[in-house]
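Retry 2 of 3 after timeout on previous attempt. Resubmitting structure tokens to design endpoint.
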């Protein structure tokens, strides 16, 4: 199926883009600027599109993001340190973000004759983000099939929805994903901080996968402390 991939520029979505390209299905990458403090991730999405030789479209959602207040990603709230699964990480939720992005992506896919929209939501997201869970993606696909009935035939593709991030690292390596050319850190500094939930999860995923992590972290050792603290709870 001709497939549009939603690509943030992070490890998961870039790996999905390379996987889709290897399968001969990739048509375009679509990214979203919703006023996230780590907007530099969009530069990595652009690099992926250039490397894969497909169009890249950035949708300006900054006015919408400004209305979705209360998240550490879009408001003047500190991004917490620690493991992704901690209750404190719920402050990184941007309400309904994925539902909004997916709706736009389905419209773009329909307008361009694509047959699928692929997103890299995965099992590690389920604890915090309700719009990454299988129940949501299944319901969303049903809703969009109704919304486009008689106009376009577009399906939601979520190959990672039931697997941990370490499996994405393995799959990404299989498809020659340039992991060093992806961005995960929510703090958006010069380097990955190594302390926020996404950095801890990223570092832990490479460790579990048994694949060398090429990422340069400002604090490369913190992830072990965060993981051990979770194990004690």
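Retry 2 succeeded. Sequence:
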């Amino acid at each position: 199926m001709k497939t549009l991939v939603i690509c943030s520029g992070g490890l998961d979505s870039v790996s999905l883009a390379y996987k889709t390209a290897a399968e001969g299905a990739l048509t375009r990458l679509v990214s979203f600027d919703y006023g996230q403090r780590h907007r530099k991730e969009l530069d990595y999405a652009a690099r992926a599109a250039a490397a894969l030789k497909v169009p890249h479209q950035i949708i300006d959602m900054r006015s919408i993001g400004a209305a979705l207040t209360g998240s550490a990603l879009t408001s003047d709230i500190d991004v917490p340190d620690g493991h992704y699964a901690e209750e404190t990480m719920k402050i990184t939720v941007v309400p309904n973000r994925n539902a909004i992005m997916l709706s736009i992506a389905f419209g773009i896919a329909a307008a361009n004759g694509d047959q699928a929209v692929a997103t890299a939501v995965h099992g590690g997201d389920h604890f915090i983000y309700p719009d990454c869970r299988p129940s949501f993606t299944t319901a969303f696909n049903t809703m969009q099939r109704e919304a486009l009935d008689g106009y376009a035939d577009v399906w939601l593709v979520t190959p990672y929805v039931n697997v941990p991030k370490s499996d994405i690292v393995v799959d990404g390596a299989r498809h020659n994903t340039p992991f060093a050319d992806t961005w995960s850190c929510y703090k958006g500094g010069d380097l990955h901080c190594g302390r926020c939930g996404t950095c801890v999860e990223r570092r832990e995923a490479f460790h579990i996968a048994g694949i060398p992590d090429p990422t340069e972290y400002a604090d490369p050792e913190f992830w072990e402390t965060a993981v051990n603290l979770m194990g004690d709870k």
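Attempt log closed. The first strand starts at residue 3 and ends at 6.
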